[in-house]
Sequence to fold (253 residues):
Amino acid sequence: MDCRYREFSPTKSEERINKALQVFPKGLLMRLLAFALHLLGLDRKAVAELVNTPVESVKTVVRIVMRDGFSAFRDRRRSEELPVAKASLSPPRITVRREGECYVVGFGPIENSLKIPISFRIQARTVLLSLVNASLLSVSETAAALGIHAAHCRELARKLASHDVVESLVDKRQGQKQDYLVGPEQKAEIIQQLAARAITGQSTSSDVLAEVVNEVIPAKVSARTVRWHIQKLGLTHIKTNLPQLVETLKKKS
Fold:
């Protein structure tokens, strides 16, 4: 390789060597340069001057490298270690799924996971929506696990970010605590109409029952009130059970 007619820039050389010293130990870099200059045909004395090392050291470097190969560039008398760039590990992806009677929050490939019983509704929503607000869980994945729409999930997460759990996640709606307009007479009429319609196969919807009760007894009973009393009295399944019971009694009579 003939370098006689090539121009070398001392300024660029200094810049490049300084940059290389950020990666290589100085001793190792000087030995690499010495061997390269030797290969380019420079005499040992000139090489020694350029890398600022004794001529005998240059001879030793050349001899050992030619014998042992690349590993000989390291000074075995010292613990020169090449700086190793640390790989930046991406944070483990957090996932959530339903598994049996629990929500399972998985933390990447590691074995650890968080299990929250599905019956612990407020606790589960607090944890999962907090992870959504921290951008650690996606809205779609969380909504699917909770069994709600993505828009509702996003709205709950927004509320939780602005308010405490009680204000944002606890359902503060209260049902009817007193009978108000529904006294014994109205209750009896609801039961009577429900039973009669169940036996004859007619509609037992709360809207129809409310309309009939209000016609028979002057009152303003709403469909919601009718539903509340039917549930409170344990008559939810009467539409199915009562006709069967009547038929059974007819056969026995």
Summary: The chain has a mean pLDDT of 80.
